[in-house]
Task: structure prediction
Amino acid sequence: MPSYSETRCTVENAVAATVGGAVAIVCGHPFDTTKVRLHLDIHKKTPAVYNVLETLRHHGMGRGLFRGLSFPLATSFVSNSFLFAVYCSSLHAMQGNTQRVTHVTHSAIFLAGCIGGAAQLVVSCPSDVIKIMLQSDIPIGNGTVSVAKTRCYLGPMECIGEVLRYYGWRGLYRGLGAMAARDLPGYGLYLLFFQHLEDLISNRETHDPYGVYTGFVAGGIAGSMSWGLLTPFDVIKSRLQADVMSRQYKGFWDCLQSSVSQHGLRVLYRAFLPTVIRAFPSGAWSGFFYNQTAGAMETLWSSEATRRRLTDITSRLRGKDAKKD
Result:
């Protein structure tokens, strides 16, 4: 049975991360669409950021820059709940007691972040598959469909139905290995960088009582650093997940070898600049809203009525567990 402090850690972080994550998804999606299309080499003759943006601009905001946004946005609460439930439980387990987590080591933060990153793949992998299917399906220029078919997908539900029809549930987990290689160290590094940068800024005695400046700067730098380091895995993941229906690649290693043999090692850092640019505002706003929401939750938890009610609920649940034993 989780302790009161562990439950508090999980709920507080999940709610704060969901608010921050939702803002980050919306802010970063135009850059995300751009990087995905550069990863896939859809513009074969001139794969430049300018040409991608021109194509996307031609189709407006919904069908262009923000295509594929709705599904990851709708599932962000579930994936963040998985992430931080496991992250907080891991930190408590590493600390060896049920008290509130304090003074944890950097290695513990990184390892707990990796474990949490693995847990959220249950939800985020299918979400990314559908998102990338829609992003890669934007017509080129003023009408030519980017894949060999007569029309584009109407939305995420049609994509899900198509994948399930031909490949079942396994199809929704296409590219899981590449995504795990990106997200396990990715979440570990992001949470490690974020905490370390917050500590550095706080130690400078900057006048930031509400964590506005701290969360924004620490989140932005942490996002750019973690995403920049893991760009090669992100490229392979995009190419595998966009390939969910055509099955050009047999798996991770086949995709890696084929991509490198055709384009050289530089293909692994394709769209590096859009990735890093996207990661800064996404991470910054995520860190900002995370800190503000966590502060509001802290105030809520601190009220005597809330504390008594949650303690009572925890005690009742423990009593039920004891009777079962």
